[in-house]
Design a protein that fits this description.
This protein is an alpha/beta fold. It has ten helices and 13 strands. The structure holds NADP nicotinamide-adenine-dinucleotide phosphate (NAP). Pfam families: Aldo_ket_red.
């Protein structure tokens, strides 16, 4: 499996793991089995995954993604990169975030991640502005400045932005280096292609969220045709397609299933051809 150096500093294998689904597969629950989640995390690392994407606002009831990562993997291997996100405000009983944290509240959220993960410094912290609507339309400068100050203080190693448009990325980059962009992207609907090209040009990691479509692997004839040619599953083709798009893309598929985990990690070694990729494009 190929690797990417985040900011020329943290080397990660390009097939990573998204932790959002560990506490519960659906927003409204039920909670997933804790022991299975811990086993998935340990197996992921055993299979060579060394990039885990999480957030303190990924929880269901008492089960938190950060807590599960800590329980399964602490003390962490020296090459494990844990990326987290701050910005959304999620109250304990709410199924999803209901607003955004103000700049002055981001220190508390970074400290919460440090505490929950059992770390002195976070490898990569994304500022995640906005809700579920299309990104953009607001300034992120004040909040990104707050994170840049925490980076200067040594609480954070690298900064990223998530769910942003080109103007917001430019705003952030004028304040501090941006190591990674985490935006929604799926090979069959490449709405964010221009952002990906910017990241590629400037050596910024591009981390598509919802790499498997977010709500179930799409029932797509093109995916099935390419998968059949390789003796692979449609999910594997989606993931391999993301990695084939550019050397800067990192995949973070989310699963709470040991079987899907094996399948997803194996997709890191699935080589798609130019013909496959042409067929997948809309
Ligand atoms: N920045 C943001 O705004 C944002 C938003 C959403 C997500 N994220 C990040 O992106 C990561 C990935 O997103 P996601 O987990 O929401 O969506 P996803 O990776 O696109 O899809 C996950 C869903 O696909 C299923 N799945 C996983 N592997 C599969 C396979 N091999 N075959 C069939 N189904 C499979 C999972 O169910 P099973 O559990 O049954 O496998 C789960 O329901 C998250 O974990 C989170 O870290 C970020």
């Amino acid at each position: 499996m190929t690797t990417f150096d985040i900011s020329g500093d943290l080397q990660v294998r390009r097939m990573g793991f998204g932790a959002m689904r560990l506490p519960a597969s659906e927003r409204g629950g039920p909670a997933n089995d804790r022991e299975t989640g811990l086993a998935v995390l340990r197996r992921a690392v055993g299979l060579g995954v060394n990039h885990i994407d999480t957030a303190a606002f990924y929880f269901f009831g008492d089960l938190t993604a950060n807590g599960m990562i800590r329980e399964a993997l602490h003390p962490y291997a020296s090459d494990l990169v844990i990326a987290t996100k701050v910005g959304p405000r999620r109250e304990p009983g709410a199924p999803m975030p209901t607003g955004q944290l103000a700049a002055g509240e981001l220190r508390g959220e970074v400290e919460r991640n440090l505490r929950e993960l059992g770390l002195d410094r976070l490898d990569l912290v994304y500022l995640r502005p906005g809700g579920i609507e299309a990104p953009g339309g607001e300034s992120i400068a004040e909040r990104f400045e707050a994170l840049a100050a925490l980076r200067e203080e040594g609480l954070v190693r690298h900064l990223g932005v998530s769910h942003v448009d080109a103007a917001q990325l430019a705003e952030a980059r004028a304040i501090a280096p941006v190591a990674a962009v985490q935006n929604r992207f799926d090979v069959t609907q490449p709405a964010d292609a221009e952002m990906l090209r910017t990241c590629e040009r400037d050596g910024i990691a591009y981390v598509p969220y919802f790499p498997l479509g977010g709500f179930g692997v799409p029932d797509d004839a093109r995916l099935k045709a390419v998968a059949a040619r390789h003796g692979a599953t449609p999910a594997q083709v989606l993931l391999a397609g993301l990695l084939a798009l550019s050397p800067v893309t990192l995949a973070i598929p989310g699963t709470s299933s040991p079987v899907h985990l094996e399948e997803n990690v194996a997709a890191g070694d699935l080589a798609l051809t130019e013909e496959d990729l042409r067929e997948l494009r809309p």
